[in-house]
Amino acid sequence: VQLQAFGGGLVQAGGSLRLSCAASERAFSMYDLGWFRQAPGKEREFVAAITLRRGSSLYADSLKGRFTISKDNAKNTVYLQMNSLKPDDTAVYYCAGRERIAANYEYWGRGTQVTVSS
Fold first, then answer.
1. Which end of the chain is more exposed for a tag (fewer CB within 10 A), N or C?
2. Do the strands 17-23 and 3-6 form a parallel or antiparallel pair, or are they unpaired?
3. What sign for the dihedral angle of Cα 38, 86, 67, 81?
4. Tens digit of pLDDT for each residue in 44-56?
């Protein structure tokens, strides 16, 4: 299982970024893929997830309305569209996958840095 997140960068507050998680074909057969983030000095937190068969999505309550998760089965890629970015969104963003509902996320990709300047 291979996961690779990319698309991070430096953006001004109020701007947008789209992150991509490129997954191996094996990875795209899992139950879902999720996005997590970890800011300096803080614990990793859940951002959003999407089931790979039905495309059902789930978001952290605090991010609803600003972030949108989507997938492209043909490209084995999951996206995270981030709008109205705030400095508090600055973090390393990771994509992760799990085989079954309610299981821990077992597979993690290398993160991509998102920095939002004020």
1. C
2. antiparallel
3. negative
4. 999 999 999 999 9
